[in-house]
């Protein structure tokens, strides 16, 4: 390697490290705003976050970024350190998307999104869609305009998808969701019609917060989550956040009358956290130190939450611990009863409370709505009506009000159109990984029964975590499982599990 | 006001708000690093902080800063909003100091200071001054060079003092400290020779952390600290930190075998916090939203800690609460015994554990050393010897080792030469405020006995807090008390209190 390229590579790294310092600061401000901030501090925090984000936006779209990226990519492939070349390609993508948005428009959009999120909280509370409508209308306007700035082949929605699931298109999603829906619907119907009705009353036994915290910590440790490089805190809307691989924080929410909220929330966020803790140290503070996509990230959380955390084998090992922390609440509940209760399935109103069987139906209806909204086939004012129609169509129920309907999710209120499909992709990826993983670890169930989760984490690190953002989601899923995304794996998994649970 | 100046004022404010967003981010990163960060996260945090600080340094020294400041100051005085003009003057000062330091030198210095602080921890632990010596030598070198960059009239040390106590000079400090020392030393000697020996064993009764936290929270509330605009956390080295007036955080440290650590630490930091919470909202996120100086800031913490928190009247109201939280530990201890125990005085090795009587002696010896160090009269290698000589001279004791001697304080390890005098100034200011305050609130003691601390806070807000950094320390002390700094007030306060306590 010549001296010049060596020097340029170093300067390029320095530039990324500086941008990453902003990201770490903003990440910490977000974590703090959701866990520790005093009540009166939120407005000034939002203001500071908006300003610092704009500074970072300007740095990302600076001539300096363009210069480093173009210089590195102008060298022959074998003259540049391979991963640094990958980083340059990734940053070039980010640069090119950002630079097409005028700086003032970005600032206007950021401020609007931040404000709108706060309005959403109030609108949901007041069950008043009209409060949020003017904000949503502007945000949809922005999204439609951004899609034009970014460009697309067939559907403007493709341009938005690219932010969350690089390489994914509306056409591909239509195909995958259609296949999924076709086999899923009859299964959902059969489960609903089954005479098997698990006793779910045990789910609502009082369970003190302090004891739930102990359960959450124990299970995170068992999952190989490293507490020396992270921490567990309480929040209203759980999330995991990686500032860097040595500082990855999990948050959860405690409901003393429904232990599932914290338990499965923690396992879910723990899955995200394992991804972030096991990103390669060498690439830290660069654009490659990130998940491959929202969908791949979600595959990790859902794999742990459902495939592991809702399996019987997992609870064969962990049920005693949970029982002990719960005091006497589960004394009369057998493992089998417990297992059936936590896997009860059926149509419900709220996405984040949905079971794994019906969850993707909630996503499909959101996807259908977003697509039409961005296309201009429907308008914001139509949302409550269309939401309720789709709920009837996909889940056979109609929300009693908008707060349990169209207002239930935060995503649209901060302008995240194109995000929802990632959740369903995550389900499908998770099931597809599961199939591949069992080929490599045939005694998967035995491992769970022994509480030995390390080999599972290691498989995910080998096939997913270690690549960070250096591979596309398509490459990761193909190399790990031997084929492209295929909804049949999820369907097979659900069929097997739920036919047995509901004696179908 | 013309349209042009109006527009310039707005742009200038925007510029300050942006700089302040960096400061808030850096402040939060510091708070987090001292309270919440996972163990493995510290190195990457230091790296990010270094980078973001350098970004802020570049913004502070940018042509943009110069342009706004110069444009505003070029207008006639009555054409500009008065407080914005003040802000421009303050920022001009900061700009001119910063711009004289070459950017690479600043970055080198910041990185060295951050590393050195970590080395200090190890050196203190290992009682090994030689570990820290090379770092200190470089930091002293930087400070001497910075003093030359900044310029001074008589003493290079004056240039450093300006950072902590604007307007203060070596000449003035020499005079004030000489007067203080002359009257203080005989009093200290008399107290040491007194046959009165308070029973201090009660200070070391076991006091559970959780109960101490309750005491700290109660007293903060009573002091009018607003928990909706702040929080209380645990840390190794207590501090208070104001991100903005709506988010001011207090930290404390719990010793279950010496409740004074948390109790007086909390009251002390609470005094700082009241200053930050009561800075004017209108000026928030500008350079005027800050304490007038380190000395004035310290006057607030010391006033609350000592004048209020170590007074008998304060405990006449609060002793029952403390007793209740302490379980049965204080059942046999009368209020008078308690009061005498928490005011026990006499020479000691460690500054932060010193009583209010001997505290300023610790400062004077540090001041003498710093002055000579920056002058070049002594060198870093001489520090352990000179430290021990001065301890003998000022306090009549010699440290058994360097970790209880020259290595005890963190300040020098991050290059803060010129900081220590602020602590002694704070003592003198506090006593001087006390004298003026009693003229306005003659029933001060009755207020304390009633637990009514609001009028005291209000007096401080009226005379100190509300001015932020818009007045110099000299202006504040003169307007509040009618004269310049005068050590006699502290001496009178100490004479009165300790003659009575020790029956002199």
UniProtKB/TrEMBL annotation, chains A, B:
Keyword Hydrolase among UniProt keywords: yes
Catalysed reactions, semicolon-separated: Release of a C-terminal amino acid with broad specificity, except for -Pro
UniProt-annotated catalytic positions: 269
Cofactor details (free text): Binds 1 zinc ion per subunit.
Sites where the protein binds Zn(2+): 268, 272, 298
Names of required cofactors: Zn(2+)
Top-level taxon of origin: Bacteria
Alphabetically ordered keywords of this record: Carboxypeptidase, Hydrolase, Metal-binding, Metalloprotease, Protease, Zinc
InterPro entries reported for this sequence: Peptidase_M32_Taq
Xref: Pfam families: Peptidase_M32 (PF02074)
Single GO molecular function: zinc ion binding
UniProt enzyme class: hydrolase
Keyword hit for Cell division: no
GO process annotations (BP): proteolysis
Documented EC number(s): 3.4.17.19
Family from the record: Belongs to the peptidase M32 family.
Function statement: Broad specificity carboxypetidase that releases amino acids sequentially from the C-terminus, including neutral, aromatic, polar and basic residues.
Protein's UniProt name: Metal-dependent carboxypeptidase
Organism taxonomic ancestry: Bacteria, Bacillati, Bacillota, Bacilli, Bacillales
């Amino acid at each position: 390697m010549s001296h010049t390229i060596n020097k340029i590579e170093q300067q390029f790294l320095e530039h990324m490290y500086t941008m990453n310092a902003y990201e770490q600061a903003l990440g910490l401000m977000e974590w703090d705003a959701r866990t520790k901030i005093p009540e009166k501090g939120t407005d000034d925090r939002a203001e500071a976050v908006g300003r610092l984000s704009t500074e970072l936006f300007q740095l990302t779209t600076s001539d300096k970024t363009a210069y480093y990226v173009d210089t590195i990519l102008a060298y022959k492939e074998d003259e540049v350190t391979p991963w640094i070349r990958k980083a340059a390609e990734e940053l070039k993508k980010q640069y090119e998307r950002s630079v097409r948005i005028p700086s003032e428009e970005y600032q206007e959009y950021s401020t609007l999104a931040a404000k709108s999120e706060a309005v959403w909280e109030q609108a949901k509370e007041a069950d008043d869609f009209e409060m949020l409508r003017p904000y949503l209308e502007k945000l949809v306007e922005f999204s439609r305009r951004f899609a034009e700035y970014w460009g697309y082949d067939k559907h403007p929605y493709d341009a938005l998808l690219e932010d969350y699931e690089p390489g994914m298109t509306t056409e591909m999603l239509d195909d995958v969701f259609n296949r999924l829906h076709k086999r899923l619907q009859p299964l959902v119907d059969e489960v609903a019609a089954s005479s098997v009705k698990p006793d779910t009353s045990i789910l609502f036994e009082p369970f003190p917060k302090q004891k739930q915290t102990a359960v959450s910590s124990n299970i995170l440790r068992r999952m190989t989550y490293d507490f020396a490089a992270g921490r567990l805190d309480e929040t209203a809307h759980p999330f995991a956040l990686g500032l860097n691989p040595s500082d990855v924080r999990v948050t959860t929410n405690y409901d003393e009358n429904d232990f599932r909220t914290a338990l499965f929330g923690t396992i879910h966020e723990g899955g995200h956290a394992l991804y972030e803790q096991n990103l390669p140290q060498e690439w830290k503070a660069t654009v490659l130190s990130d998940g491959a996509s929202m969908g791949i990230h979600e595959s990790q959380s859902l794999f742990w939450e459902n495939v592991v955390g809702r399996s019987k084998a997992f609870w064969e090992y962990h049920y005693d611990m949970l029982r002990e922390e719960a005091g006497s609440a589960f004394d009369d509940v057998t493992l089998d009863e417990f297992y059936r209760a936590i896997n009860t399935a059926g149509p419900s109103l709220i996405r984040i409370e949905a079971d794994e069987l019906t969850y993707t139906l909630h996503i499909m209806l959101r996807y259908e709505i977003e697509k039409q909204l961005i296309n201009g086939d429907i308008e914001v004012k139509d949302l409550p009506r269309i939401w309720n129609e789709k709920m009837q169509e996909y889940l056979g129920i109609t929300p009693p009000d908008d707060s349990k309907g169209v207002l239930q999710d935060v995503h649209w209120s901060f302008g995240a159109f194109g995000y929802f499909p990632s959740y369903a992709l995550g389900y499908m990826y998770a099931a597809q990984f599961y199939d591949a993983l069992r080929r490599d670890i045939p005694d998967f169930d035995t491992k769970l029964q022994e509480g030995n989760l390390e080999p599972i984490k290691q498989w995910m690190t080998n096939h997913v975590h270690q690549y960070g953002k250096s591979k596309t989601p398509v490459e990761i899923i193909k190399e790990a499982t031997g084929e492209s995304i295929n909804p049949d794996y999820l369907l097979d998994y659900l069929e097997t599990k739920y036919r047995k649970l509901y004696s179908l």
